[in-house]
Amino acid sequence: MSHTAHIRSHRKPSRSTSTLVMRAGVASGVLSTLAAAGASAPSASAAEPVTQTLELPTLTADLAAQVAQSAGATQQAAANYELQAERDAAAAKAAKQAKANLAEAKKKAEARKKAEAARKAAAEQAASRSTERTTLAATTSSSSTSTATGSAAAVIAFARAQIGDAYVLGATGPNSWDCSSLLQTAFKQAGISLPRVSQDQSTAGTPVSLNSLQPGDILYWGSAGSAYHVALYVGDGKFVGAENPSTGIVEKPLSWSPPTGAVRVL
Fold first, then answer.
1. Which of 48, 86, 153, 194 could form a disulfide linkage to 148, CB 3.0–4.6 angstroms apart?
2. DSSP bridge partners of 17
3. Contact between residue 249 and residue 162 where contact means Cβ atoms under 8 Å apart
4. Nearest Cα to Cα of residue 242 among 181, 158, 161
5. Which pLDDT band holds residue 17 (cuts at 50, 70, 90)?
6. pLDDT for the residue 158
7. Helix 150-161 and helix 179-188: axis angle, to 10°?
8. Which residues, including other chains, have CB under 8 Å from residue 47's CB and lie 6 or more apart?
9. Contact 155, 186 (CB under 8 A)
10. Do the strands 261-264 and 206-208 form a parallel or antiparallel pair, or are they unpaired?
């Protein structure tokens, strides 16, 4: 037997077929990857977004003039509207003032009309009273101056006896009276019962004219049935009455305060 027959070989063992196949597969994969990357490069470039530049139109001189003209027209229109609004406001204010002036003028005219009517009425009343005084003065001069007799004398005597007493509204004597209580008490002296108030006393007897008065007649002021004052005619154009708190019971001529009418109960 040879000496070398049992000595192991020192040659490197050959690589297995599987290892070689694996490495070949890896290399092939790498190459495939590189090839794919190279092939896809143009596609990536083609997928990049394209930037588009827009060019704005150039503002020409004509367009600028049109813009300026439009702005000027707008400004002028606004100014016109504002001016018109001011004119309308001024017109409304003037109309309101004119209306107020017209109302004031009418008011003043009405006041003047009323004042003129009042003046005429006062003048007519003054003229009427003047006529009454003249008439009463003439009546006094022509009236009988004879002394009252009988019942009239008793009534007049009592009324004259109270001259100087006080006037107190609602009082019935013996030292203070009002106009109707004085006459009521005076006529009691002749046995005649008169109503208490002047309104009723003005219709208690027979109406007589102021031109034909007799002593003992009842004088009244106001309207018959609604008289506000009464007094006693005592002859010689005079009367006795409770006039007011200032004068008290006094004797006065008819012209001092001309009465409206008279009634006769005696």
1. 153
2. none
3. yes
4. 181
5. very low
6. 97
7. 140
8. none
9. yes
10. antiparallel
**Any idea which residue has 């990857």 for tokens?**
33
- 155 in Cβ contact with 189 (< 8 Å): yes
SS3 letters for the chain? CCCCCCCCCCCCCCCCHHHHHHHHHHHHHHHHHHHHHHHHHHHHHHHCCCCCCCCCCCCCHHHHHHHHHHHHHHHHHHHHHHHHHHHHHHHHHHHHHHHHHHHHHHHHHHHHHHHHHHHHHHHHHHHHHHHHHHHHHHHHHHCCCCCCCHHHHHHHHHHHHCCCCEECCCCECCCEECHHHHHHHHHHCCCCCCCCCHHHHCCCCEEECHHHCCCCCEEEECCCCCCCEEEEEEECCEEEEEEECCCEEEEEEHHHCCCCEEEECC
- The whole-angstrom distance between residue 21's C-alpha and the CA centroid of its chain comes to 118
Distances (CA, A) of 235 to 12, 18, 64, 155: 190, 179, 116, 12
Nearest to 213 by CA among 192, 189, 238, 190: 238
**The overall pTM is greater than 0.85:** no
At 141-191, the pLDDT tens digits run 444 444 677 899 999 999 999 999 999 999 999 999 999 999 999 999 999
Quickly tell me which residue has 């006693």 as its tokens: 232
Count, residues in the chain: 266
Lowest mean pLDDT among 22-31, 183-192, 225-234: 22-31
The answer on pLDDT for 71 being more than 60 is yes
| Residue percentage of the chain with pLDDT more than 90 | 44
Distance CA 146, CA 178 (A): 28
Over the Cα atoms of the chain, what is R_g? 67
